[in-house]
Design goal:
Blueprint lengths: L8 H14 L7 H20 L7 H11 L8 H4 L2 H8 L7 H11 L3 H4 L8
Helix pairs in contact: 1-2
Length: 122
């Protein structure tokens, strides 16, 4: 087991190839430990070189609605009328603080995402 930091794209590809070989290794074995360490090194490299930005609040709501199999009408108790929901989801109006609180509870979207700034459509 030769573990070293991932400093380049070549190192990254080599680590991915090795992890592919030992991925199913049993825990608490030499190869299992190597797989665990490689996973952490790969994750660290990916976080630094391929960051994934959080979606804007409206996209986060739409994603969660799809995951939970919800329609716009299902949000009326949280956000008000169907026309208000349509305005929000089409980025014509902003979320209110009360809506953010309710969405956080109902859809389990962190408030830190829901309070993020986003551009309205004119």
């Amino acid at each position: 087991m030769e573990i070293k930091p991932i400093k380049s794209e070549k190192d990254y590809q080599t680590a991915l190839e090795r992890l592919d070989v030992i991925f199913d290794a049993a825990p608490n074995t030499k190869e299992g430990d190597e797989a665990e360490i490689l996973s952490l090194l790969i994750e660290n490299y990916e976080n630094q070189h391929f960051p994934i930005e959080a979606p804007d609040p409206i996209e986060a709501i739409k994603i969660r609605m799809e995951e939970m199999n919800l329609k716009q009408k299902d949000l009326t108790k949280i956000m008000g009328s169907k026309s208000r929901i349509s305005e929000i989801l089409n980025k014509k109006k902003r979320l209110t603080v009360d809506m953010i609180r309710e969405l956080e509870k109902a859809l389990h979207i962190p408030a830190s995402i829901l309070v993020s700034n986003y551009k309205l459509v004119q």
